[in-house]
Amino acid sequence: MVQAVRGMRDVLPLEARRWRQIENTVHQIMQQFAYEEIHLPLLEFTELFARGVGEATDIVEKEMYTLADRDGDSLSLRPEGTASCVRALQENGLLYNQTQKVFYAGPMFRYEKPQKGRYRQFYQIGAEAFGYTGPDIDAELILLAAEFWRALGLEERVRLEVNTLGSYDARQAYRSALVDYLQPHAAELDDDSRRRLKTNPLRILDSKNAQTQALLATAPQLPEFIDDESQAHYAGLLALLDDLGISYTTNSNLVRGLDYYTHTVFEWITDDLGAQGAVCAGGRYNGLVERLGGRAMPAAGFAMGLDRVLLLHEVVHQNAVGSAVDIYVCHAGDELASEAQQLGHRLRRAIARRVDSSATCGNTHTVKVRVNMGGGNLKKQMKRADTSAATWAVLIGAEEMQSGVLTIKNLRDGQQRQLAEADFVEHVLLAKHINSD
Ligand code: HAM
After folding, report:
1. Cα of 55 to ligand 1 centre, how many Å?
2. pLDDT above 50 for 53
3. Phi and psi dihedrals of 12, rounded to 5?
């Protein structure tokens, strides 16, 4: 049997049900905030990420799935969505003299060392806003993410860290100062940090190595290099977060692994998933549009890692995944198989008509009707109904056909009763707490 590729995981039905709930919730909130959905390709020219994410980042240096297509072009599976998003909006003229707020969802690919919460194919939902200079949009993006946690019942399990990297110039000045300080101590640095001293020195701040951290304790500090304008932007953001009642901690070592950030960076972190604690991350990237060939334009955004949010949701809400089947339709005798199929479909339609159309996209408001397939005597069918974990088994036989009422068995409490089709629909709506007004 051929196995799945390492780091590429299957999301099986039980998990996929939880996934659907989470994704629906997130999509709904994106729409509440009036962000527009956008779909982006999985494959892009490698150059897009090299220029966008940065040549010296781990992602571009060693984590991309890169291939040559038949024309000899170098293509890469997208390791993230921001560069693609900029490319798509720019290429389609949607950044010209206008602002944009968009969101996207889909798989990203990074050749990382797989472990729980870290995969080579993982799923991100990202939001990006273009054309806004002030900290109000940074705050809105953070509020948007905070709203996910609230809606998913995870607000107690995540915390927010924020930092400012200042303007591009401030960051460059700090970079030089850090290199000047660390260069004479290069031999004492861990291997990764020594390499990063040449390629991406700010990332050394992220090192988990104790000796490197000890060296950093007396190194120049980023906040000393932040210019006044950037400070004002940062102070503006923190004040807005205070006004919105969003708690945060400031962390001047938060630098992020992608090169395009300026000013605000932030991460939502959970302590429930061990080392893979970052569930959502982002920041401002004012230079990226220009770097990719467009006109200078401020921008900010974030992406959450759905695989990690799913794991966290599983830890916090162990049983909250809804049902696979709600109603199981059985028939007494093969001659009633077609009747059963028609009845099942009438029930689906009658219930769907009564469900508020705005709620139908949420899993919780979809009543799932499964009709017995493949015949079998009634005992066998009832057994299947039980195995499906449905709440109700609906039964039609010769008697039911004649009287026009259905036999309903509640599989949870074993009670059986006779109900007309329309009354059964009411009963289900009531039991599922569906407001059918
Ligand atoms: P990132 O921090 O590289 O940022 O990824 C964002 C989130 O994706 C992480 O916080 C994490 O939850 C998830 N993630 C990343 N790598 C993996 C992995 N190997 N397995 C599972 N989950 C993972 C970005 O990608 C930026 N494009 C975010 C952004 C948007 N900044 C501005 N706009």
Report:
1. 17
2. yes
3. -85, 165
Instruction: Supply 173's token pair.
Output: 């000045």
Higher pLDDT, 358 or 243: 243
Are 152 and 25 within 8 A, CB to CB? yes
Residue 155's nearest CA partner among 142, 146, 165 is 146
Determine contact, residues 389/382, Cβ cutoff 8 Å: no
Provide CB contacts within 8 A for 103, sequence distance 6+: 27, 30, 35, 36, 37, 38, 125, 126, 127, 128
Ligand 1 atom, smallest distance to 301 CA: 33
Q: Quote the tokens at residue 200.
A: 């991406």
Q: Tokens 């009531």 map to which residue?
A: 430
Q: Is 359's pLDDT higher than 60? A: no
User: On the CB side of 233, how many CA atoms lie within 13 Å of its CA?
Assistant: 25
Distance, CA 110 to ligand 1 centroid (Å)? Answer: 10
The verdict on the CB of residue 363 being under 6 Å from ligand 1 is no
Mean pLDDT of the chain: 93
Q: Over the range 326-353, which residues count as b (16 or more CB within 10 Å of their CB) and which as e?
A: bbbbbbbeeebeebbeebbeebbebbee
CA of 388 to the centre of ligand 1 (A): 37
Give φ, ψ of 99 to 5 degrees. -100, 160
Total residue length of the chain: 437
CB 124 within 8 A of CB 306: yes
The β-bridge partners of 110 are none
- Separation of CA 385 and ligand 1 centre (Å): 42
